[in-house]
Amino acid sequence: MKKNNALMVCNAYPWFTFYRRQDRVWNDELESGISEVKQSGADSIEPSLGSLEQVDQLAKYTDKYDLGMQTVYVNSQLHETAEVEPTIQGLLPLVERAKKLKGTNIVVTNPSPIQWGSKDSKTDEQLATQRDGLEALGKALSDMGVSLAYHFHDIEFLKGAREVHHMLAATDPRYVKLCLDTHWVYRGAGDSNVALYDIITLYGDRIIELHIRQSQDGIWTETFGPGDIDYPYMVEVLKKRGIKPVVCMEQAVQKESPNTMDGFEAHIVSHSRGREVFAPIM
Q1: CB neighbour list of residue 175: distance below 8 Å, 6 or more residues apart
Q2: Which of 111, 116, 129, 165 is most buried per CB count within 10 Å?
Q3: pTM to 2 decimals?
């Protein structure tokens, strides 16, 4: 049996983006989609959980197609005091079911911005509330034998990346680990590899998962491979530090991306290249 970190995980989000540009809806074709994830070379899928019924459905189809669900993504609202406890109590049953049915042992969450699409930043008071809520969620998951991995997008890098740094510098590393989303660091810091490697330097010991994506001149490519981010160098940096995270492919497409293949074709290439590049730490 493969070790957990030897798996090639694939996040569901990139499939949403490939389906969307073909005027298709991933959730409407879930079984065939999961079949394609497996056939494209992934060992495990990282879905976004929203209900117990969804967990049951995912478990049914992933079992049918021999696909793991080691990691899951959950949304969370943690920056307002009134939202913290309902968020935690709403998420725990989903994770408990996923762990029971699929052996899930990592939960990735990106605490929601004030409003999606807004450039407003959270106040210091809201950041402190979120910090405490994130750690409380991490403690609750730890009691279940599951690790919490903090995740971010580019918006958290506004105003000196204060949100990212506070969530990591001011929480207990036993309970709040890091899902390093490489391209959101790169983009959020103004297309900077320097910033990406600084995050590894500062918080590398907390990295338990990577979300990997590539771009050319800042635009997401259809497949994972050479581009703006020097992934072979990153692997060497991680290897020297003894960091062996779960590797999760998240090669999504945006409006400006090339459009030469569908999601299945693209993921066959991405998974193969991802395994090759990250082999030294898998």
Answers
A1: 135, 138, 139, 141, 142, 148
A2: 111
A3: 0.93
